[in-house]
Amino acid sequence: MSELHEKLTYLREKKGWTKTYVAKKLQLNNLGTYANWEYGTREPDAAMITKIANLYDVTTDYLLGNTISLQLKNSFDYKRDDEVNYPVIGTVSAGPNGISYEEHEGYATAMASEVDRNYEYFWLRVRGDSMKDKGIFDGDLALIKVQSELENHEIGVVLVDGEEGTLKHFVRTGDTVILEAANSEYPNRYFSGEEINDIRIVGKLVQVKKYF
Questions:
Q1: Which residues lie closer than 8 Å to 102 by C-beta, 6 or more apart?
Q2: For the whole model, what pTM was predicted?
Q3: What is the β-pairing status of strands 83-95 and 189-192?
Q4: Could you list the residue ranges that cross the membrane (predicted)?
């Protein structure tokens, strides 16, 4: 879920509110104004986005697609003292306002002892078998720590020149960056010189939740 109009619909329906009710809460004279925002034919201005964020108790960054957390100040949600909930995301891609997190599937738990509360995290639904030799299979959930750099030989989610994000082994040797799959059927990808600028790191793999 990356578009503003989709988030407006999601948040309203989650509250069980009608468009008319929300329009009144936002002190709009015309119901059609708000309806157009949900249809995606128009967008609210910056002042109204702040008002909407306050109404739904979310951040403006969430509404604008700059974070996947509904509330950046409280991006983790405890189920028990030793468990943390993070959103499950189906697709990561480059969006107009930064990284776009799409196909929100709900939430999955992680152990609180295995995360750093100073960072954001999300679960990525693994697609394909390019990392199967590392024990990461299609349908698994990969817990990703959001960060813009990877150490040599770490596994993380990377974007390459407009493609969807994918899990790869990050290797830097000299002036070359190699994105390695863990499956011999998938060739390594090599980047050097200006090509390295096409690589965008989304985050680091922390753990994998298996599904059978």
A1: 1, 2, 89, 90, 91, 92, 93
A2: 0.63
A3: unpaired
A4: none
